[in-house]
Design brief:
The structure is a single chain. The chain is mostly beta strands. The chain folds into 5 domains: 7-125, Immunoglobulin-like, CATH 2.60.40.10; 129-261, Immunoglobulin-like (Sandwich), CATH 2.60.40.10; 293-387, Immunoglobulin-like (Sandwich); 392-526, Immunoglobulin-like; 534-666, Sandwich (Immunoglobulin-like). It has a 6-stranded mixed β-sheet, with no helix packed on it. Strands 21, 23, 24, 27, 28 and 29 form a 6-stranded mixed β-sheet that branches. Strands 32, 33, 34, 37, 38 and 39 form a 6-stranded antiparallel β-sheet that branches. The radius of gyration is 57 Å and the shape is elongated. Its main location: membrane. It is found in: Membrane.
Length: 672
C-alpha cells in the first residue's frame, strides 16, 4: 500500500458574514508539512479576479501600496496563535473589504505535495442591531430594601439583511468585572450565570420577553449580592454553511444602578453580667429603611456555645407577625416600638448564663391579601454571665482531742462562723483533707479523706475508705454549723496537717443544687513526739535465809517510760543446775499472770504441790511470787519476765516492750 501525504492549508468555510465597523478575525492553519515547526503565512485579497497582497509573517516588503497605511496603523495585522496557525485581524471592516481572502504558506517541504493556499469569501453587511434601555431617569438608579423585588427592561432589534439571531444576557458589575445573571441564547434557551442556578430554578431570577422587542429581568428576594450596576448585553449570531453558529457583533447598554439597604438584627447590649435573682433585660433592634407596611416576627434563642446553630439552640420565646407571644412564666417579650423588641427574664439563675440570639423575619403584604416573608436575619450572640449570690462566711477548724500517744483518739471540729446571706436556698457541706508534713522542702499534695455532695451523702477518699468502713474514722455533723472528724485510734501515719473546706450550695429553679462557693480553713497539725519504750524489772528476795520445807518469797517491781497507761504481764522462770536431769534445757516456766490478772500454771508439774506456787499482783507495778514447802530440787535462779502492754485499737492490747529481772538464787547448801 502507498499513502499520499502532503501539506494542507485550511481556512473557515465561507461565506463569512460580518457587520460593517466590527473587528474581523479570519484564522488560517497548516498541517502535514516538512521543515521547521514554525511556518510563515501570506495573505492576499481579491474583489474580482486579481489578488492584492495584504500582509506577510516573514516579508516586510510584501504589503502592496493599497494596504500599507492600514497595516502601518495596525488596522490590519497578523496575530500568531501557534507555530502552524495565524489570524488575519481587520479592525473596523468596511464594505470595500468584502471579497475573497487567500492564505498562502511558502513551501518548506522536500517535495511539493498537497495544497499551499486556501480561500474564503467574506461578506460585509450593514449594522442593523439596536440596543436601548429605559428612558426614565428614576429607573436608572434604584434604592431598595433587602427582600424587595425589582424589574429591569431593555429593547433589542435588528434589521440585518441576513437571517440572524439575537443572544440577550443580563449582567451585573459589583466590582471591576461584569458577571452573567441570566441569558436567552440565540438558540432560544435560558441559561443562568454561575451562582444563579438555584435562584433561577426557584423562580427568583426570571427573563421575560415582551412587546416591542423588550427583554425584562425580574429579581425577587433581593439581597446584598444584587447591589451593583446592571447592563443588557446583546450579541448577533448567524449560522454558517457548516451549520455552526458565528457571533458577528455585540452591543450593550447600562440600564440601572441598584443599591440594597441591608436589614440588620442586633441586640443593643453587648456582653452582660447580672447577679443571681435579678432580671435580665435585652433589646432586639431591627435596622431597616423600609417605609411601607411590614410586620416582624421575632424569636429569642439561648445556647451554651456561641457557635451553635439555631437548630441546636433552645427557643426561649417568640412573637409572630400578629404580635402573639408564646406562653412563659418567668420570661416576657414585648414590642417596645416599631423596630425594637424587649426580652425580660425575671429571677435569673446561674444556669441562665450563656449566649442569647435574636432572630427576626420581615413580612410584607401581597396584593391578594396574603403575607410574604422577604428577609430573615439572626443577630450576633450576646454573652450573658449570671453571677451567683455568694454567701459570706468564714471557716474555723480546731482540735478538741489531740493524741499524745499512738492509738489515742483525734477529734477535729470544722465550724462555720460569721455567716451572712445564708438564706433557705443555701446549703453547706464539708470536705476533709490530710497533708503529710515533711522536714524537707518537698511539696506534698493534699489527700482527700472524705467529702459530701449536695444532699450530704458521704463520699470517702481512697486513703480513708477502708478505715471508714471499719468504723476507725467517723465523720459526723454535730450541728447546723459544725462538722466533726474523729479518728478512733490515731497511728503514727496519721500525723500531719488537717484542714477542711466548707462548700456553699445554691438551689436553682429546678430544685437542683449548684456549688457557689468554697472556703478553706487554716490547717491543724496533729503530732506527738515518739520515744523508745523503756522497762526496768527489779527482783527482791524477802527472806534472805531459809531451809528446805520453808516458803520461798520474792517480789518484782516494774517501772516504765514512754508507755501510755501500761499494764504488765509477768512470767516466773527458774534456771536449774545442769545436774538436774528433769529439765535438760535449763529454764523452767513456772507460773504467769497476764495483763488482765489471769493466773496460769505453765510448766509446773508437781502434782503433790499443785497449790504450792502463787503469783499475785500487789500493786499496779509490783508482783509477788511464793513457793511453799520448798525442796532440794527447787534450787536454782529465779527471775521475773515482764511484758508491758498498752491499749490498742478496738479495745485490744498491744505489746510494747519486754523486760527481764535480776536473778534470785535458791541454794540449800548455803542456807542456814
Amino acid at each position: 500500500l502507498a499513502f499520499c501525504r502532503g501539506r494542507i492549508v485550511r481556512v473557515p468555510k465561507g461565506p463569512l458574514i460580518r457587520v460593517v465597523g466590527t473587528e474581523v478575525e479570519i484564522p488560517c492553519s497548516v498541517s502535514d508539512y516538512d521543515g521547521p515547526s514554525e511556518q510563515n503565512f501570506d495573505w492576499e485579497f481579491s474583489r474580482e479576479t486579481d489578488f492584492v497582497r495584504i500582509v506577510s509573517t516573514w516579508d516586510s516588503t510584501f504589503t502592496s501600496e493599497e494596504y500599507q497605511k492600514r497595516v502601518g496603523r495596525g488596522d490590519i495585522k497578523l496575530r500568531r496563535s501557534s507555530n502552524d496557525a495565524v489570524e488575519l485581524v481587520i479592525g473596523n471592516i468596511q464594505p470595500t473589504d468584502q471579497g475573497r481572502y487567500k492564505c498562502s504558506t511558502p513551501s518548506t517541504d522536500a517535495t511539493v505535495q498537497g495544497n499551499y493556499d486556501a480561500e474564503v469569501q467574506v461578506k460585509v453587511i450593514s449594522d442593523g442591531l439596536s440596543v436601548t434601555g429605559s428612558k426614565s431617569r428614576s429607573s436608572s438608579s434604584l434604592r431598595l430594601s433587602e427582600g424587595d423585588s425589582f424589574r429591569l427592561r431593555c429593547s433589542a432589534t435588528t434589521t440585518s439583511p441576513e437571517h440572524t439571531h439575537l443572544h440577550v444576557t443580563w449582567q451585573i458589575k459589583s466590582g471591576s468585572t461584569w458577571r452573567d445573571i441570566l441569558s436567552l441564547t440565540h438558540e432560544g434557551k435560558f441559561q443562568p450565570g454561575p451562582g444563579y442556578e438555584e435562584r433561577y430554578r426557584n423562580g427568583d431570577i426570571r427573563l421575560d420577553t415582551g412587546a416591542n422587542d423588550t427583554y425584562r429581568l425580574s429579581v425577587s428576594q433581593a439581597s446584598s449580592v444584587d447591589a451593583g450596576a446592571y447592563r443588557c448585553l446583546v450579541s448577533e449570531w448567524v449560522r454558517g454553511v457548516d451549520g455552526s453558529w458565528q457571533k458577528i457583533q455585540e452591543k450593550s447598554v447600562e440600564i440601572a444602578s441598584v443599591s440594597i439597604q441591608r436589614t440588620d438584627v442586633v441586640i443593643s447590649t453587648s456582653n452582660v453580667s447580672v447577679t443571681e435573682r435579678d432580671s435580665l433585660d435585652l433589646m432586639c433592634n431591627i435596622t431597616t429603611d423600609r417605609s411601607g407596611i411590614f410586620q416582624a416576627e421575632v424569636m429569642w434563642y439561648f445556647s451554651a456555645s456561641p457557635d451553635d446553630v439555631l437548630s441546636d439552640a433552645q427557643l426561649l420565646l417568640s412573637m409572630d407577625r400578629d404580635s402573639v407571644v408564646s406562653d412563659s412564666t418567668l420570661i416576657s417579650l414585648s414590642h417596645v416600638d416599631r423596630n425594637s423588641y424587649r426580652l425580660l427574664v425575671r429571677d435569673v439563675d446561674v444556669e441562665d448564663s450563656g449566649y442569647y440570639f435574636c432572630e427576626a423575619a420581615i413580612w410584607v403584604p401581597l396584593h391578594n391579601g396574603s403575607w410574604h416573608k422577604v428577609v430573615e436575619r439572626t443577630s450576633a450572640p450576646v454573652s450573658v454571665v449570671v453571677t451567683a449570690l455568694e454567701p459570706d462566711y468564714e471557716v474555723f477548724l480546731n482540735a478538741s482531742k489531740i493524741p499524745k500517744f499512738s492509738d489515742d483518739p483525734t477529734e477535729l471540729n470544722c465550724r462555720i462562723t460569721n455567716a451572712q446571706d445564708t438564706e433557705a436556698n443555701i446549703r453547706f457541706t464539708v470536705s476533709w483533707y490530710y497533708r503529710q508534713r515533711l522536714r524537707s522542702d518537698d511539696v506534698v499534695t493534699e489527700e482527700l479523706l472524705a467529702t459530701m455532695d449536695a444532699d450530704w451523702t458521704l463520699l470517702p477518699g481512697d486513703r480513708s475508705r477502708e478505715r471508714i468502713q471499719n468504723g476507725e474514722i467517723i465523720f459526723s455533723k454535730k450541728s447546723a454549723d459544725t462538722f466533726n472528724l474523729r479518728i478512733q485510734w490515731t497511728s503514727e501515719s496519721d500525723r500531719g496537717d488537717y484542714f477542711c473546706v466548707i462548700s456553699a450550695w445554691s438551689r436553682h429553679r429546678n430544685n437542683s443544687w449548684v456549688k457557689s462557693k468554697d472556703v478553706t480553713s487554716a490547717s491543724v497539725n496533729i503530732f506527738w513526739a515518739t520515744q523508745d519504750y523503756t522497762l526496768t524489772v527489779e527482783a527482791v528476795k524477802l527472806k534472805p535465809f531459809f531451809v528446805a520445807g520453808h516458803t520461798f518469797e520474792m517480789t518484782c517491781k516494774v517501772s516504765s517510760k514512754n508507755i501510755k497507761t501500761p499494764r504488765y504481764s509477768v512470767l516466773i522462770t527458774a534456771e536449774k543446775p545442769l545436774t538436774d536431769q528433769s529439765n535438760p534445757n535449763g529454764t523452767t516456766r513456772i507460773i504467769s499472770l497476764n495483763q488482765d490478772s489471769v493466773v496460769r500454771l505453765e510448766d509446773w508439774t508437781d502434782q503433790t504441790r499443785v497449790d504450792g506456787v502463787v503469783l499475785e499482783k500487789v500493786q499496779e507495778n509490783e508482783f509477788r511470787y511464793r513457793m511453799y514447802q520448798t525442796q532440794i530440787s527447787d534450787a536454782g535462779l529465779y527471775r521475773c519476765v515482764v511484758t508491758a502492754w498498752s491499749p490498742g485499737g478496738g479495745g485490744m492490747w498491744r505489746e510494747a516492750v519486754n523486760g527481764l529481772s535480776n536473778p534470785i538464787q535458791i541454794d540449800f547448801q548455803t542456807s542456814g
